[in-house]
Design brief:
Blueprint: H1 6-17, E1 22-28, E2 34-38, H2 56-59, E3 63-68, E4 86-91, H3 93-105, H4 110-116, E5 119-124, E6 145-148, E7 151-154, H5 157-166, H6 194-199, H7 205-213, H8 219-223, E8 230-236, E9 242-248, H9 269-283, H10 285-288, H11 298-302, H12 309-315
Parallel strand pairs: 1-4, 4-5, 5-6
Antiparallel strand pairs: 1-2, 3-9, 6-7, 8-9
Helix pairs in contact: 7-9
The structure holds iron/sulfur cluster (2 copies).
Residues 223-226, 280, 293-299, 309 line the site of one iron/sulfur cluster.
Length: 322
């Protein structure tokens, strides 16, 4: 937009967007914590911070009703779905990759897909923190719109339509694809023999050493943009109503590996810690060729005993060191 800075143009665009969309973005609250919040009428300024709890809380709420006997049928409970279309703005590249991961992991989930189809995703340039360790990447992340510097890119038909409707003066770059500098990770690549290292590290004392420090608080999983385990909980009340909910679960919790009959696949903290690491790097990778760690560093940021996933991985002995 001629006569306006890139920031002013973006702000103007967001204000127009608010007429039709519930606009949500990262805002630093009075307590100094960056959270995803709905922008109010005053159009609070977002900031390039990583929200402590990422966008999974919109797509997969911490608790949601799946079914209630009061509905009189076995249908999924529609009231638990957010009625509004949500525009998620200022999404950092690592969180765009995390969304792509969740899209694959929840491809058959009707609740997730219902929300996902009503989500407009607007990415932005990365503002790295001291905790980041994003791996090298070979392809740009998916997005509807992406703002960087004075430029904007459209990544979908939805993005093109929204730009045309709400910011016709902003012209999307079509001459070049989103440049690598905006999405290529700067961290070290994962070791080629990672799968073998994990498979042969079952009895390695490294896991017990790290587990001695771990509190099993689960903060790392809660803050992780790709950790999305849930439990299904039934509640039957004397009033006659019965409800089925799904609630966030956490692989650091003792019950996570508990199955019918009382057997627990991961009864101790060492096994749970190793499981989380293995799942982060190998759980989905073998099946879909995608790591579930996008290197955002939130897990290290929130860990009360400063356990660093990347550092632990570096210590995992290579075959020749055994
Ligand atoms: S494991 Fe840690 S660094 Fe990797 S995506 Fe999750 S929170 Fe981010
Ligand atoms: S945040 Fe740290 S202490 Fe808590 S479960 Fe995760 S690794 Fe363990």
């Amino acid at each position: 937009m001629k006569g306006f800075s890139a920031t002013e143009s973006f702000q103007y665009f967001v204000e127009k967007l608010q007429h039709s969309w519930t606009v949500v973005g990262p805002i630093i609250a009075a307590d100094g914590v960056c959270r995803l919040q709905e922008l109010g009428e005053a159009a609070a300024r977002t900031c390039p911070c990583l929200p402590l709890i990422p966008q999974k809380k919109i797509l997969l709420p911490p608790a949601e009703l799946l079914w209630s006997s009061l509905e009189g049928s076995n249908q999924l409970h529609p009231a638990s779905l957010s009625p509004a279309a949500v525009a998620l703005i200022d999404v950092a590249p690592c969180d765009l990759y995390a969304l792509a991961y969740l899209d694959q992991a929840y491809t058959d989930d009707p609740f997730y897909q219902e929300r996902r189809q009503r989500l407009l995703i607007i990415g932005r340039e990365c503002s790295p923190t001291t905790f980041c360790h994003c791996p090298p990447r070979t392809a740009p992340p998916p997005f509807d719109l992406f703002f960087a510097g004075d430029d904007v890119w459209c990544g979908s038909e939805l993005g093109e339509n929204v730009l045309r409707e709400f910011a016709s003066a902003l012209v999307a770059r079509k001459d070049v694809a989103l440049p690598q500098e905006y999405w290529a990770g700067q961290g070290a690549p994962l070791p080629n023999d990672l799968a073998v290292r994990f498979l042969q590290s079952d009895a390695d004392p490294l896991w017990a050493e790290v587990a001695k420090r771990c509190l099993s608080c689960g903060a790392c999983s809660a803050a992780c943009p790709t950790c999305a385990c849930y439990d299904v909980v039934d509640d039957v009340s004397l009033s006659g109503e019965s409800k089925r909910q799904r609630v966030w679960d956490n692989c650091f919790f003792r019950d996570h590996g508990l199955v019918a009959g009382g057997h627990n696949f991961r009864p101790d903290r060492t096994a749970r810690l190793r499981f989380r690491f293995e799942h982060k790097y190998l759980g989905f990778g073998g099946q879909r060729g995608i790591s579930s760690c996008v290197g955002c560093g939130r897990c290290q940021q929130v860990c009360p005993v400063e356990i660093n996933l990347a550092h632990v991985l570096e210590k995992l002995p290579a075959l020749e060191e055994r």
